[in-house]
Amino acid sequence: MAQQEDVFKKIVSHCKEYGFVFPSSDIYDGLGAVYDYGQNGVELKNNIKKYWWESMVLLHENIVGIDAAIFMHPTTWKASGHVDAFNDPLIDNRDSKKRYRADVLIEDKMAKYDEQIEKEVAKAAKRFKENFDEAQYRATSPKVQELAEKRDALHKRFQEVMNAEGGIDLAGMKQIIEDEEIVCPISGTRNWTDVRQFNLMFSTEMGAAAEGTSKVYLRPETAQGIFVNYLNVQKTGRMKLPFGIAQIGKAFRNEIVARQFIFRMREFEQMEMQFFVKPGTELDWFQKWKETRMKWHQNLGFGAENYRFHDHDKLAHYANAATDIEFHMPFGFKEVEGIHSRTNFDLSQHAKYCGKKIEYFDPEMNQSYVPYVIETSIGVDRMFLSIMCHSYEEQQLEGGQTRTVLHLPAALAPVKLAVFPLTKKDGMPEKAMEIINDLRFHFNCKYEEKDQIGKRYRRMDAIGCPYCVTVDQQTLEDNTVTLRDRDTMEQRRVNIADLRGIIEDKVSITSLLKNLL
Ligand code: GAP
Known about the structure:
The protein is an alpha+beta fold and 517 residues long. The chain has three domains: 42-81 and 218-394, Bira Bifunctional Protein, Domain 2 (BirA Bifunctional Protein, domain 2, 2-Layer Sandwich), CATH 3.30.930; 87-199, 2-Layer Sandwich (Herpes Virus-1), CATH 3.30.40; 405-516, 3-Layer(aba) Sandwich (Rossmann fold), CATH 3.40.50.800. The strands form seven sheets. A seven-stranded mixed β-sheet has the order 3-9-10-16-13-12-11. Helix 5 (102-128) runs antiparallel to helix 7 (142-162), helix 5 (102-128) runs parallel beside helix 8 (170-179) and helix 7 runs antiparallel to helix 8 (170-179). The mean pLDDT is 95. Residues 221, 223, 253, 255, 264-265, 268, 270, 272, 335-338, 375, 377-379, 381-382 line the site of glycyl-adenosine-5'-phosphate.
């Protein structure tokens, strides 16, 4: 576990050192849970978005895109339920004046029991050496049994308060924190306030004060921009059910516990698609979208074992099925995408609040109805993090050397080809630039002339550049270069005229998309 945490810390540092992700307003020491993407990060992020967008809009005849505004009419959020119910349970420590999510404090306590169990097992393994039977020890050690019982009892109580009739049982939550003697990590005391609900939406004022202002929210999800445009798109695009509307855009949540780098941010980006279907067919479509989305993830080649579905037992009142796609991050399996069967809740609510009919006329049935919706919702930043985590490797090389390499899928890599002149003379830089000027229209190229070739390779490995080309004396004679592969480090001599043909197909998003058909 500690080892995984170390790896994660290294990935965070790597992201900063190599221009992927910086803390926001870094010169002022950053802003909590807000991050900026650097010169390499923005390219990777754009490629992720392109992969998603084209898999939706290009590969499906019946999916179109929109780009709705971040600000929306305030009634939107009343209708969607966010004003009344988009809350987290909070608790303050009176001594440290620090605020915590009460549910997270309890989850951390459960994790502590697990940590203690693992420590016991590790101690026993050390003591009994090769005679150690781990399964038997876990099943029979009184200490491990006691800790597991405590953890299970806490888990049961936690489930009860979270799923209480009429919403979370806040008093019950406080009672658990007291009974478990949970202390504030800063002050070390148990001087807690009551638990209360805290709305996660950011708000601001729109309009000059003299005209009278109105409170508007920064959207906490992009989905509502799609729902309020359902009629516009359906009518102007003459869309027939089933059809989908896709959107990529920023979302904002005043997360109280913001941690694990870009996993939980206050400003983040979502890629959401709402698929409108005939009532009664939604569960078949839910199943189909589960499969389609899992295929999209696994197509990146990170190994099927690193993904799993987490089906929700307890559903929101408007949903009749929901699942998460989780990815194996260094800090455990974590949600990257949510797939929800949202019934006709959102469209019906908007119809109710705006006083207009929001329906679909089905020519086959000669009847109008409110469509049902399957939603696929993925965070760009979480996807970015999962790709970084899986791609990062500190590799031991022959001769005791090491290299840090990002095995990014070539189609997502920020730079596809780096071109190096062996020396800065004899016309080699000019030849290298000639190659770049020819290929830059087809994929992202980078020119590098500083340092020894070995160091240049290392720099390119660290940003995940799949191919490097070196221009040397022989190039000037026969127009061939050495082409080096990032993952195998193999080098081969190829003709400059063949470079595009060798590289383009491997680094294009199209190559990924073709596998999805
Ligand atoms: N429209 C449905 C919706 O917003 P969600 O499960 O709250 O559902 C969907 O969010 C996805 O958005 C998540 O799976 C995650 O990838 C991303 N996401 C949500 N909150 C986030 C945050 N604070 N920081 C980064 N990504 C977040």
